[in-house]
Write a structure and sequence with these properties.
- With 383 residues, the chain is an alpha+beta fold.
- The protein contains 19 helices and 11 strands.
- The strands form 3 sheets. A 7-stranded mixed beta sheet has the order 3-4-5-2-1-8-9.
- α11 packs antiparallel against α12 and α12 packs across α14.
- The chain is elongated, with a radius of gyration of 27 Å.
Amino acid sequence: MQIYRVGGAVRDRLLGRPVSEVDWVVVGACAETLQAQGFRPVGRDFPVFLHPETGEEYALARTERKTGRGYGGFTFYAAPDVTLEQDLQRRDLTINAMAEDAQGRLIDPCHGQADLQARLLRHISPAFAEDPLRVLRVARFAARYHHLGFRIAPETLALMRQISHSGELEALTPERCWKEISRALMEPSPEIFIRVLQECAALERLLPALARLFHQQPEAGTGCLEVLRNCASSQQPLAVRWACLLLGLASPEAVRQSGQHYRVPRDCQELAWLASQHHLRAGQARQLTAATLLELLQQLDAWRRPERFSQFLAVCLLAQPGQQADLQHLAEAARLTGQIESRTLLAQGYHGAGLGQALSRQRLRVLEQLQQMAQSSGHARSG
């Protein structure tokens, strides 16, 4: 039995990047051998096991054969006679098909090291086209390594287009797509992920509403990608990046449908929907009436959901940097009205519906004063 370090750990070490997790391939063994040594199987029919102490993944060397549509349409052959080279040949990109033995010697049958040096994302064989998930994976790698000068090989991009036009992308499960999309949005250059999906005709199949935006309003699409790039440079969380990606869609309903289709986490869906509904009004906060401003804060649930409200402001500022003063004004309105406490009104004898009405009246009075000050300041500046 021989054990090799494989894949991303080898790739990132050669790039001089931090290695976050290590995967291993076991050659010359069977499932019973690993289980006898305390390894725990990940699944009943998948030859991957967890180390009894480290929890790292150890996979039996295997080959694959396409038997159906989509990401899961494969059968595996894992046995002691499968070689390391055969296992590496089934992988997606040359830079992911390198291994190291126990002495640290590199095994590189697909010339991945040369492609690392050439900053090239290149597929290994025509079998690349059998797995539609690889379209999203390659786009994600492009987003990860763009700042290092990586590009996709033209022949690989051509295969990605072939997959897009084949209808295979539609066979991917929403959950698997979202896993790749969410990881790509958190890469250093998430806008490159979207650009690559455009180039290979996958965007119209994966995010059709966004594809229509790019087709019908190219300037708005370009602006969307610029905002997404700024999300990464300011290290925004996933919910903010998802909201910024969808902010230019034609309607909040399109935003809602995109989130529901991929079963996006609730916090991401809620923020994207709120941003699509209210970001324009937020950017005019100083010009709103006190009643409208109060209604906006209520719709944003600013007092009970302060973290989400902060993320909403972040989305608005990224999308409308010229409206910073209005957004700061909105934040101040939330702060001042949030200082009004229900217990004070309870002590005054307000209960039930009357308590809510009294709370709204006090908040409205605070906002009326705030808006008067804002308007007076605006008149002074214009004068």
